[in-house]
Amino acid sequence: MMSSPDFATLGVAPAILQALQELGYEQPSPIQAQSIPLLARGSNLLGTAQTGTGKTAAFALPLLSRLRDDQQTPQILVLTPTRELAIQVAEAFKSYARYLPGFNVLPIYGGQDMRTQLRALRRGVQVVVGTPGRILDHLGRRSLVLDELQAIVLDEADEMLRMGFIDDVQEILAATPAECQRALFSATMPAAIRQIATEYLGNPQEVRIAAKTTTVERTEQRYLLVHDSHKLDALTRILEVEPFDAMIIFVRTKSSTMELATKLEARGFAAEALNGDLSQELRERTVERLRRGELDILVATDVAARGLDIERISHVFNYDIPYDTEAYVHRIGRTGRAGREGKAILFVAPKEHRLLKAIERATRQPLTAMELPSSKEISDQRIRQFRKRLTDTLCAEDLSGIRELLENLADQEELNMADVAAALAFQLQKEQPLFPVFEEPAAFRKSSPERRPRSAQDDSASPVAMVCYQLAVGRRHNVMPKDIVGAIANEAAIDSRHIGRINLYDDHSTVELPKDLPKEALRHLQSIRIRQHPIQARLISTPAGGGKPTTPRRSGGERRRKSAA
Ligand code: AMP
């Protein structure tokens, strides 16, 4: 990877640098290196970037660096397609601004109590992050006033388009002061998004992450779809059954290298952290220990592992997905040295599926989906090891004294030798049960292709088993599929990618949703209204008939008619 400038050089304010240091950010990601200086000097920006590239910090850091501490009315407004993203972006702002005195950020989204939002807005906030519908609502009530807004960011603009929010977005843009700084980030740039950029961003600076194609030879590449919260469990299960010599595990932050190395050590792996905070000498010593086989696993950041060339490394484990395809190619270049075949494993969170696609395009080869080792596989592996340990001990040790002891014991207590052995084996395997039972989180399960959500063509990463709900709204209520997607995504915080096929009938409709929805989402689902009609979502086992269904038209280019401007 090319070396990039540090955050200070890019123009990030000192108070924010301190927060970044504590968060363990080692160096700017490529989209950050490009965007931060432009936004820091006030330019409008059009950025092609997907989730996982570090785009949130790419706009949050420079805009926060320009924040005025003498103004209590909203200075920055970020529009996001979903409530989930609004919360995530607000959290990111909060963590970067932890040393800005009196800083307040407020996420605003549908489904949340209006009074709470009104109270918070009255108290004064500098940054508002919200979904378009609810933001418009507040603009209408004058509870949110954008007269002194310094900057507006459209995050995941193509998603907002897909969900039918684009008119709302335009209305909000039109309500911002003419001199307000504007940035638009989108994973793709459909015509309708370009159009908005032309209309509202003037002549913006453009940034994108170039996806160079490279051939990756001698490396077998696999990926596992897994939510962040299950990564550690998934990793340890894979480490148990995957034969490896030495391994580098890549994570994003310096703090994660320490955390993960400690956790792996606690689970009995010879693992050590490698990051830019360690002295050169300590880093060299750690690498040397890996080379000599005193260590098996290095948990490293991209920076720290640059240029590592160790023949023993059989595996590269991408625990956190790299920011771009170039970093991925560099990472997996650490294995497959000296003509040996290397193996690469990648964890992909469902929301990062676009990066996976980009990696496949850039390396010109599909990654194979892998499955999480099952309880049975792990059990088989542990039994194999147990058997080996047993036979090794029988071969290598003089057991005559202990054997005599046990024979006497069995005699006196009238025990069968097999029972004695079973009791001892039971004690031995307590820490690592020979017959473990792991729970199978929903995200680990593979879905069959016919149950894939609607967006399957661009979303081969969809992991979810789907069930069908009937809604008490249909064509008669002037409801369109995009209204259903928008409402469910926003109110029930279900990622729109996980909203499956929608069929519209005259007085009702059906929608496929993930089988294992969290309780919270189910609760919100019950209270949703679309065009003032309660949807009364009801679980039905199979997609219901009753009239000819309308095939949903939900292509990216779809655009709601603009109301008379
Ligand atoms: P995003 O693409 O904005 O969704 O960011 C993805 C993840 O990368 C988040 O967990 C961020 O905290 C993390 N991240 C962003 N920039 C950096 C950086 N320069 N160094 C380390 N981690 C980062």
CATH topology of the largest domain: Rossmann fold
Please give the order of strands in the largest beta sheet. 3-4-2-5-6-1-7
Percent of residues in beta strands? 15-25%
- Give start-end ranges of low-pLDDT stretches: 443-462, 543-565
Output the CATH homologous superfamily of the largest domain: P-loop containing nucleotide triphosphate hydrolases
Overall tally of domains: 4
Overall geometric form:
globular
The count of helical stretches stands at 20
Helix content range: 25-40%
On the 0 to 100 scale, the average pLDDT is 86
Oligomer: single chain
Small molecules bound: adenosine monophosphate
Q: Gyration radius, to the nearest Å?
A: 27 Å
Q: Quickly give the CATH architecture of the largest domain.
A: 3-Layer(aba) Sandwich
Structural class, by secondary structure, is alpha/beta
Q: Termini separation (Å)?
A: 49 Å
CATH class of the largest domain: Alpha Beta
β-strand number = 20
Q: What does the main sheet amount to?
A: 7 strands, parallel
How are the secondary structure elements laid out?
Layout: H1 7-10, H2 14-23, H3 30-40, E1 45-48, H4 55-65, E2 76-79, H5 83-96, E3 105-108, H6 114-123, E4 127-130, H7 132-141, E5 151-154, H8 157-162, H9 166-174, E6 181-186, H10 191-200, E7 205-208, E8 219-225, H11 231-241, E9 246-250, H12 254-266, E10 271-274, H13 280-292, E11 297-300, E12 313-318, H14 325-332, E13 342-348, H15 353-363, E14 368-369, H16 375-396, H17 400-413, H18 417-428, E15 466-471, H19 481-491, E16 502-504, E17 509-514, H20 519-526, E18 529-530, E19 533-534, E20 538-540
Helix pairs in contact: 3-4, 4-5, 7-9, 14-15
The structure holds adenosine monophosphate (AMP).
